[in-house]
Amino acid sequence: MSAHSNSGGLPPLDFSRWRRVPGYLIGGGLVLCLLGAALDLKQFGYSWLLAFMCYLSLVLGAAFLVMMHHLFDASWSVGIRRFCEHLACLAFPWMAVFFLPVALLAPKIYKWMSLDPAHDRDLAAKWPLFTKPGFYLAAVGCFGAWALFTSKLRYWSLKQDLDGAARCTHKMRFHSSWGIAAFGLASHWRRSCG
Questions:
Q1: HSE of 54, CA atoms in CB hemisphere, 13 A
Q2: What are the tens digits of pLDDT across the range 100-137?
Q3: CB distance 86 to 144 below 8 Å
Q4: Is 9 within the bounds of a domain?
Q5: pLDDT digits (tens, 9 = 90+) for 67-98
C-alpha cells in the first residue's frame, strides 16, 4: 500500500483558513486582560496569580519528574523524560515574563506587604522573608535556581545523546541532587507566602 493512498477518495482537509485563529485568540485574551486590569486591578492580580501558579505547577512538576528520574535511576520515565526536560527548561523565560505582573501587583495581592512588622507578631516572626526586598530576592533566587538546574539537566541530557558517556549520567544526578533541595526550599517559601 502506498504512503499516499487516500481512504475513500476524500480530499485532505484544508485548515489554511484557520491558521490565524490562534493569533486572534491570543490578541482577544490580551484585550480581556487589559480590560480586567482596568476595571479591578486587585481582582486582576488575584486571577493572574491563580493562573500563574497553575502553569508554574505544571512546569515545575515536569522538572520534579526529571530530577526524580535521575535520582532514582528510573527506567519507566525514559519515554517522557525529554518532553519534561523541554517543558521545564524552555518554559522558564516565559514563566519569568508571566511573573512580572505578580511582582508588580504583589503589594495589592499580599496583605502582609502593607502590614507593619512592629504591630504584627506573626509577621515579625518571619521578618527577613516577609518584607518587600525579601519577597523579590527570594523570587529572583527561585527563578535563578530553576534556570540553572533545568538548563544543566537539559545540557547534559543532550550531550549524553551524542556520546552516551556515563559522565553525563553522573552530572545529571549531581544537578538533580542540589536541584531537588532548591525545589523543596522554593516549595516551602511559596506555601509560606500565600
A1: 6
A2: 999 999 999 988 887 777 777 777 777 777 788 888 99
A3: no
A4: no
A5: 888 888 888 877 888 889 888 888 888 999 99
Number of domains in the chain: 1
Evaluate whether residue 16 is within a structural domain: no
For residue 71, give its domain range. 41-193
SS (H, E, C) the chain: CCCCCCHHHCCCCCCHHHCCHHHHHHHHHHHHHHHHHHHCHHHHHHHHHHHHHHHHHHHHHHHHHHHHHHHCCCCCCHHHHHHHHHHHHHCHHHHHHHHHHHHHHHHHHCHHHHCCCCCCHHHHHCCCCCCHHHHHHHHHHHHHHHHHHHHHHHHHHHHHHHHCCHHHHHHHHHHHHHHHHHHHHHHHHHHHHC
Distances (CA, A) of 138 to 60, 153, 182: 16, 22, 12
pTM of the shown model: 0.77
33 belongs to a structural domain: no
- R_g of the chain, CA atoms, integer Å: 22
The three grid cell numbers given for residue 67, joined into one nine-digit string: 530530577
- 147 in a structural domain: yes
